[in-house]
Amino acid sequence: MAVTSSRTLRLLSLLQSRRHWAGEDLAGRLGVSIRTLRRDVERLRELGYPVEAHRGVYGGYALAPGASLPPLVLDDDEAVALVVGLSAAAGTGVAGLAEPSARALAKVVPVMPTRLRRRVEALRSVTAPGTWTTGPRTDHGVEPDVLSAAALACRDGEALEFRYTAADGTPSDRHVEPYRLVPLGLRWYLVAWDPSRVDWRVFRLDRVTEPRGTGSRFAPRRLPADDAATFVRERISGGAEGFHVEALVDAPAAQVRRRVGWLTVTEEGPDRCRVELDVDDLLWGATALGLLGASFAVVAPPGLAATLHDLADRFASASLALAAGPGDAH
Fold first, then answer.
1. Which of 149, 178, 203, 258 has most Cβ atoms within 10 angstroms of its Cβ?
2. What is the pLDDT of residues 22-64, one digit of tens each?
3. Contact indicator for 116, 78 with CB cutoff of 8 Å
4. Residues 6+ away with beta carbon under 8 Å from 275
């Protein structure tokens, strides 16, 4: 029975990983006969999973959408990704997402295997509230193992060693006392005390490889900032790492949240609010402000002015060409 149950879970995982499976391919993956595969498929149907069977040359099996969401089989990295996404959604300003995300987290985390629950609880406990944004990115993102290793080291107060690649491509071996993780823009950052530099440092986790806890413990230090997210913003704002965009908008806060729900919006009066976001590219920051549907005044950064002028010129040229008609466009 234990072997059968394990194989059934393996079958479910395979069906969830691809839209369609040929019967022979699926049986081969499981190491069973076609007849045994049919029995396992029938077992899944009894458990409430809508598995469709198709006959013919292109026949096979597919997991169809059901009336309700059945239990899912996730690997470790998928489970960590799910918790990260739900945690971000639980803290978002998008109406209707925060409460359901928090409820989903309350259901998912307690039933995870102990080894996995330790990773995700560490990640949640040491992640400082930041700001998620959307938009294009050019790097490959942070590896789940790197994120988990940094989170565990932060939570346990354990010194961390890793290989770090600077912005100019120079690699170095680092030994730090990790403090907090901060998601800003489209990236994750590690705030840590660097004994060799005798100073606090901010590391982009997508540039970290081969992280390893040393087993050495350290006494907590006082961060020279109100919080870790503020510290990261101050270190990267206006530099090669990213930009913190802030503007005053001539519109009610509720109206702005409805139009662009992923910005940080603070009420400044009945018909005025302040918006903030962290971006990798000032062009994306300017575009985001243009989506507000209201007049605004930029507070920071100063370099955004040139980007706004350039974007305005391009829109003006496009509108003139459109008004002139297709025959006069260049």
1. 178
2. 888 888 988 999 899 989 889 888 877 888 888 876 678 888 7
3. no
4. 246, 247, 249, 256, 260, 263, 264, 265, 266, 289, 292, 296
In sequence order, the 6+-apart residues with CB closer than 8 A to the CB of 83 are 105, 108, 109, 120, 123, 124
Q: Is residue 61 packed enough to be buried (19+ CB in 10 Å), middle (13-18) or exposed (0-12)?
A: buried
Using DSSP, state whether 2 is helix, strand or coil: helix
Token pair, residue 142, equals: 């942070």
For residue 80, how far is the Cα from the chain centroid? 11
Q: How far apart are CA 292 and CA 224, in angstroms?
A: 34
| Separation between Cα atoms, residue 84 and residue 131, nearest integer Å | 13
Burial of 165 (0-12, 13-18, 19+ CB in 10 A): middle
pLDDT per residue as tens digits for the range 130-184: 554 444 444 556 787 888 888 888 888 999 999 998 876 788 899 999 999 888 7
Please report which helix (H) or strand (E) contains residue 131, including its range: strand 131-132
List of domains in the chain: 2-63 (1.10.10.10), 77-227 (no CATH), 243-321 (3.30.70)
Q: Note the helical H segments in the chain.
A: 2-17, 23-30, 34-46, 76-90, 98-108, 114-125, 144-156, 228-236, 253-259, 282-290, 304-324
Rounded Cα–Cα distance for residues 149 and 119 (Å): 8
The H helix count followed by the E strand count for the chain is: 11, 12
Instruction: Give the contacts of 254 (CB within 8 A, at least 6 positions apart).
Output: none
Which residues lie below 8 Å from residue 119, measured CB to CB, with a gap of 6+?
Answer: 76, 80, 148, 151, 152
